[in-house]
Amino acid sequence: MKMSRSGQKTRSDESFNKERNMSYRLTKKRKYEDSSDSDADHTEAQSAAPKETKEKWKVIHEELQNIKDELKKKDEELKKTKDELASFKNRVAADVSLSIKTGKTESLNSPISKTRMVEMYQKFKLLRWPKIKDQLKSCKKMNPKKTEALIQKTFREAAEEMEMKKEAIREVFDLLEPNSGLTSQKIQEYKQLAIQNHQMSLYNSNKGDLVKTRLSELGLEYPEEVLENLRPLVCECYWLGCLLALNTPALQLDWENHTGSMDPWDIFPRNMKSSDM
Description:
Elements: H1 5-102, H2 114-137, H3 144-180, H4 184-203, H5 207-210, H6 214-217, H7 224-245, E1 251-253, E2 272-274
Antiparallel strand pairs: 1-2
Helix pairs in contact: 1-2, 2-7, 3-4, 3-7
């Protein structure tokens, strides 16, 4: 049976409508799925952002705390330095007062007077030594015990060498005494003047020139980079040790009564004493 033309058209329209509706639903479904995926990505990005920010703030907080701790440590070291310097000034004032009372005065203008040498030692201990100490701490082959042994040996050898110098000066004047026509008191004064002149010469000398061969003589066998850090320490200690040994009476650091502190690098004694004590 043949279908009428109008019937065929109606069926064709219905089929077209069905296909169009299906296409519309598929398109709508895809849009919904794409929207869902986009929302999920956005939600995930939003949740990741606070986490990343939190981690950054945590790192910043830790860095700030480290800075605060370091500043606190520096403040404590500065306070300790100020306290030691104030204590040193009080001791010097007491020594000067006592020397005036007893009549044993000294020229405070002289750079090699006992008072000036004590002051030089305290300045080295409080100002120069912390810088040298920081350099030595970076050397894996150096530690507080090795460094203290080196310092004591340097001061000891400086004192021994200066004692030989003083003895040579005394021997020269002893040879001249019988024929000089000078009294024993005058000879003694000239001996002391010669020693003081040698002391002044060392005071004005280049510290590095005094210890050109000192590192090898001390038996130090370290790599060059370690010796570079040790050289300033040996220069300072040997130079100061010579000046102390040429004082009358000779001075030396009071190692026996050095108690130290919690810091293993607190090596230098607080006080010094006469070597004949």
